[in-house]
Every structure is written in structure tokens, then in C-alpha cells.
Design a protein that fits this description.
CATH superfamily: ACP-like
Radius of gyration: 12 Å
Number of strands: 0
Order of helices and strands: HHH
CATH class: Mainly Alpha
Distance between the termini: 22 Å
Length: 94
């Protein structure tokens, strides 16, 4: 079944749901499936490495139908900033 791209604004909770889904699929560290995650947590503090970042970007591209720019994700980015960037990209593309 094909999923329609998410075109509504992204919230930190939306990003956290993606992190949890990828952790359950064993593409991100397992602790992300159940640990508390806050909007101010960063990619680095969550233990996401460059491979995990690639899985995350790939999932965002699938969910938005938009290619992420090369500089979309940085280790210092927090969940709230990622949600804001995703919202901006989907609004620009839409």
C-alpha cells in the first residue's frame, strides 16, 4: 500500500514517532523505541550516528515525498528544529 506524503506541519511528536519506528525496525539504537525523548534532545545525545542519520533522512524523504538537502541533518540538531525544517520543506514543496 502506497502512503501519501505528509504535507501537514510536523511536530516534535511526529519526529519522535519516526525515531521510535526506526528503532523498532533496528535501524536506530534500540533504546529510542522506549526511552523518553524530548524536543530539545539532539541527534548526538540520542546516539544516532551517520548511518542512523541516513536511515532517518531516507524515511523523511519517503514520508514527505521531498528530497532532503545535503545539509538537512546535523549532530547538534534537536527534535524541535528537525520538525521545523520538515515543515518548511513540505510547505515549500507543496
Amino acid at each position: 500500500m502506497t502512503q501519501l506524503p505528509k504535507t501537514t506541519p510536523w511536530s516534535p511528536d511526529d519526529v519522535i514517532a519516526v525515531l521510535r519506528d526506526l528503532a523498532q525496525a533496528e535501524d536506530l539504537p534500540a533504546h529510542l523505541a522506549t526511552d523518553a525523548i524530548k524536543p530539545e534532545d539532539t541527534v548526538d545525545t540520542l546516539g544516532i550516528d551517520s548511518l542512523g542519520g541516513a536511515f532517518l533522512i531516507e524515511r523523511f524523504e519517503e514520508m514527505t515525498g521531498t528530497l532532503m538537502p545535503d545539509d538537512f541533518l546535523d549532530l547538534s540538531d534537536n527534535i524541535a528544529v528537525i520538525a521545523e525544517r520538515l515543515t518548511a520543506l513540505t510547505q515549500k514543496a507543496g
